[in-house]
What does this fold into?
Amino acid sequence: MSTKHLLDPELSPLLDMPAMTFTDAGMPKLRELLKVREVVGDAERHKVTRSEVTVTSGDGTELPCLLYTPPGDTSPRPGYLHIHGGGYILGSPLQADIMNLQVCAKIGAVVLSVGYRLAPEHPIPAPLDDCYAGLAWLHTQADELGIDTNRIAIGGESAGGGLAAALAIKARDAGEYAICHQHLTYPMLDNLTGSEDHPGDPLVGEFIWTRESNAYGWRSYLGDAPAVAPQVPARVEDYSGLPPAWIFTAGLDLFRDENIAYAQNLLKAGVAAELLLYPSACHGFQQVPGTQLGARFAADHLDALRRALT
It folds into this structure.
């Protein structure tokens, strides 16, 4: 079923993008191709210091991360752990550089974008363990960076949003490192979405991230492990005690209904959850430059995160 007529006209360039085909053998080449397309912002113009740091994961693996530091000595200031998207199989810490620069410059938050290991080479638990190491690093480096540990938020897009939701569960259960807020942009939460037994609404999933893409991403991420929480956030049984959440989704996104259900489950457990939905948008719509929809999203994203951190 075609849903092209439901897509915002501003997003028409997405109609010409061919669907990506994923294979284990082709993954390294695809990653390099997408890395070349990454858009890097002007840190100097934002008066932000962007630097490379190394975070060590629990098994000793060194993770390349990006640290964004606001100008001046404004401590104590908030911290934000960013987790990039890419279906658990693609992406890098530089992927959301422009937004992370804005978070740092406009909110005054220290931002760490974590370079977690990717599937299928590194299935669970590695990606989530790496993100947990990033959270631990922000807490242990808080004095040096001038971070208020009571104001550390986590967030990400797509698989990054899924990992952020998983990290919130893992951190709650471990009780070591506090998280004040989770900022989830069309998060990838449920391995059953789009499967043969759970195909979902035929009006979602035509653009950018399809049912076939989702099956490959989850299969790669899970490996031989069972689909359980925290790695699969939708399988969590107890939502109580999780951090307040801002959840963004789109009317044509494959993840729309799982995002709505997650927000509802948080609310039922007494967790403050704000849900925002753009009806005529799809997964990855921000890739189209210069749209009013993209500017609106950036404003909404920053406003919600500012309210959570300040």
About this structure: The two ends are 44 Å apart (CA to CA). DSSP finds nine helices and eight strands in the chain. The longest strand covers residues 147-157. Strands lie at 49-56, 62-69, 77-83, 110-114, 147-157, 181-185, 245-250, 273-278.
